[in-house]
Amino acid sequence: MIELKQVSKIYKLAKKRLTIAVDHVSFSIFKGETLGLVGSSGSGKSTLGKMIVGLIPPSSGEIFFEGRKKTGLLPLRIQMIFQDPFSSLNPRMRVESILNEPTTIHGLPSRVDELLELVKLPLDAKRRYPHEFSGGQRQRIGIARALALSPDILICDEPISALDVSIRAQIINLLKELQMRLGLTILFIAHDLTIIRYLSDRILMMDQGKAQLLQDLQNSTLQGALLSNRSI
Questions:
Q1: pTM summary value
Q2: Is the distance from CB of 193 to CB of 223 less than 8 angstroms?
Q3: What's the pLDDT tens digit per position in 37-87?
Q4: How far apart are CA 4 and CA 187, in angstroms?
Q5: Quick one: which of 201, 199, 196 has its CA closest to 232?
Q6: CA atoms within 13 A on the CB side of 223
Q7: Residue 94 falls in which region: left (phi positive, over 0), alpha (psi -120 to 50) or beta
Q8: Which of 113, 134, 135 has its CA nearest to residue 124?
Q9: 102: closest CA among 112, 113, 116, 92?
Q10: What's the pLDDT tens digit per position in 27-37?
Q11: CA–CA gap between residue 212 and residue 206 (Å, rounded)
C-alpha cells in the first residue's frame, strides 16, 4: 500500500549546520501487515512516520500510496496514534467532542458510541474529560480518534512507551484485535525489540537515519539484542 523510494529528511540548524534525520530510506508496507520499525532514540523513526502521514514533507525522495505519488495529508486513509496520549488530547474537550471532531470536519456521521465500543470503553466515557482517565484509557481514546475516519493504515508512533508496563499488553492486544477486525495495515514504531517481534510480520531497523530489513542485517549486536529480548 505504501512505498518509499530514497526518502530523506534534512533539518537546517543554527549556523548553517545540517542534521540528516532520515537518509535515503526505501521500503514498502504491504496491505494487512504489521511492519515493525525499531531503533534507538534519535534514529529517525518518528520523523519517518510523520513523513508517511504527511505531517512533515520529505527533503527528497518519493512516497507512493497504492501506486500513486503521495502529496500532503490523506486523513481518510492514513492516521497516526501518538506516543503521549495526554498531550495529544485537548484537555478542554470532552471525549465526545474529541471523537466527533474528525467526522465533523469531513462532513461524516458521528461514530462516538461505535468507536468507544471498538476500544472497549464504556459509553458514559464520552461525557468526561481526558484528565479523568488513566494513561491506558487515554490511549484508547487516542486510538478511537485515529479510527474515526475508518483509515486503512495506522502509524503507531511508540504508542505504549508512556504507559505503565502492566497496561502495555492490553493496548498491544487491542491493536492486534482491531487489525483483524477492521483489516488495518500498521506501521508500529518502537525501541523495544521484544514488542516489535511479537507484533510484526516484518521488522525494519533504523540506525542514524538509515533503514534496513532485519533479516538482511549482518550486525551481530542487533541480532543478539533481538534474540535476548533486549531493548536498544
A1: 0.87
A2: no
A3: 998 888 899 999 999 998 999 999 999 998 888 777 776 789 999 988 888
A4: 13
A5: 196
A6: 8
A7: beta
A8: 113
A9: 112
A10: 999 999 999 99
A11: 7
